[in-house]
Design goal:
316 residues; mainly alpha; 15 helices
Length: 316
């Protein structure tokens, strides 16, 4: 028996971790992940061959981000996620909140700008097109918190609590489009907050933390709403296959608990990353100030001391 035209067999055996992590799932995401790893690896090798440095930590973060997408979309989780709300919520949380953070920590835009060759005067190549996109009005709009925060919230409430979710889950194309949307929304939301890659919207560290906390509570409220519901709220998961041996309401409550828990995990990861970036930024500024003082004989300090001496002389 198929599930909503998706071509998914309804008589899946009861969910276990081994079955959920068995390789399989969607070839669309598998091809995308392989292509992303290949392009990132090519760019990193290009830098290393010409003697430029590219941090191994960024490479590890990007690979880990791609692997989280593989786990969410290219395993048995993708099959069970079509008929179990709890498993679907694991997919959603991973691909919208964990994968984007790790991918952004890999600084793929910075790597591309450094690896792509310049096209030459009067011509436009991939690097010039990327620079133009980063400085475009479109990019300024979609990375501004006035846009990213409502989009982040609407991706939960405007999707799950409307008939749109059931419509998308009714076909393979709709399911892929929804998951691509989750990944894209996560990238757009966390990009200016992480501040690793260049972009048109680069607020200070305090403002980044405020942007982060402005969106996260809505995930918690969404999870609590699912946990406290007295009846199934999503049509797609209202009648799970009998072969799974689960109750729809209990599974929905589990999905709510997963959404609530995941609202905390990314916050901690991003906060740690922001504090570390803040510390490194202060260190770099201190080194720049030291170099400036060495070059000019610390004239700024001497001028300040002279100013204080003049004030003291006037006081006499």
């Amino acid at each position: 028996m198929d599930h909503g035209g998706h071509g998914m067999m309804m008589d899946l055996p009861p969910f276990t971790l081994a079955r959920g992590l068995a390789f399989g799932g969607d070839p669309f995401f598998l091809v995308g992940c392989v292509l992303a790893l290949a392009l990132y690896g090519w760019a990193a090798v290009r830098l290393w061959r010409r003697g430029d440095r590219w941090p191994v930590g960024r490479l590890v973060a990007f690979v880990a981000g791609v692997l989280t997408v593989v786990v969410a979309m290219c395993t048995g989780l993708n099959d069970y996620g079509m008929v179990m709300f709890s498993v679907h919520m694991v997919q959603h949380m991973i691909i919208s909140m964990v994968s984007p953070i790790l991918l952004l920590l890999g600084a793929p835009v910075t790597l591309a700008l450094r690896a792509l060759p310049a096209a030459g005067r009067g011509r436009k190549g991939p690097r010039e097109l990327l620079v133009a996109l980063l400085h475009s009005r479109y990019m300024r709009i979609i990375t501004h918190p006035v846009f990213t925060i409502p989009l982040f919230i609407a991706s939960l409430y405007g999707l799950y609590f409307t008939p749109l979710f059931d419509f998308l889950m009714g076909s393979k194309v709709g399911h892929i489009a929804m998951m691509v949307h989750f990944l894209a929304v996560g990238l757009v939301f966390f990009w200016p907050i992480m501040g690793v890659d260049p972009g048109p919207h680069r607020p200070g560290y305090v403002m980044r933390m405020l942007e982060l906390f402005a969106g996260m509570p809505f995930h918690a409220f969404f999870g609590i709403a699912l946990m406290m519901a007295s009846a199934p709220m999503i049509g797609t998961f209202e009648h799970p296959p009998g072969s799974l041996g689960i109750d729809a309401l209990s599974d929905q409550n589990a999905a709510g608990g997963i959404a609530w828990a995941f609202s905390e995990v990314p916050s901690v990861i991003v906060l740690v990353a922001l504090v570390y970036q803040w510390y490194k930024s202060d260190q770099r500024q201190a080194r720049r100030d030291d170099r400036t003082a060495d070059r000019d004989g610390d004239q700024e300090l001497a001028a300040y001391n002279a100013y204080l001496a003049s004030l003291q002389a006037r006081g006499r």
